[in-house]
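FAQ: What does the model actually see?

It sees only this:
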Amino acid sequence: MLHSPCPMVVTLHDLTALKRRSEHLRTSVRPRLRQLAVQRAERVIVPTAALARDAFARLGLERERVVVIPEAPDTIMYPRTPAQIAEARARFALPERYLLWVGGLQHPDPGKHIVELAATRRELPLVLVGPTRPWAHELPNVTLTGYVPDEDLAAIYSGAHALVLSSEDEGFGLPAVEALACGTPVVACEVPALREVLDERATFVESCDLIALLAAAEAVKRPAPPPPPWTWQDAARATWRVYEQAAALLDGPRTAIRSLRRVSVAGTERALTDSQ
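And it is asked to produce this:
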């Protein structure tokens, strides 16, 4: 794959593992191969300009190779009826009123601050939605649903008082636009990507201030503003154009680009080796 005879297009969703390397101690070859694939790609798709800036700074990518294509809520994400909300609440043993967090709970991620969020004082119950591992079941005073199908997730979004985003770094923040699509207010810690995507559609508090985050979430009022108008159909069309541009390079001169790419990849390989 890394020496593909065809032009490669790589989608980069976030750079958390690279930005917080000391907290991600995997020593497998997979993370290294991912970064080398990014370096060899003719085009790199990212969901926000904030992530693009990180890619320029941390991966040394040329600006003309990086294309911003936002993500979007699936069409299944829309406000559910009271009966559907009640059914989901009964199925997952949820309280009548609750704050919601959505994401993966397979591994404790210090950047998400889930342990601190669970321990922070609040009035409303906190529901955590996402696949879990045993460590998550030791979190105090929270309700865990485990993996939830999208149909049920839309009802859980719809029934929540607010969605909270406690992360100090995001590549896009898909749960935020999903929640808005379901009519649920969003409260988030100040993060460049979230500010870019949501702007005035969400309530922001200072990064890592979980007391302020939960207080703002409990005080927020409905109705929530609609999500950004961008759709997955828009994203598909934009992605297709990027692949067309990359494919067109088969017919054009690529010698100079490959020469520059070899220098960039060699530098990345040295950096990756030094980090081990």
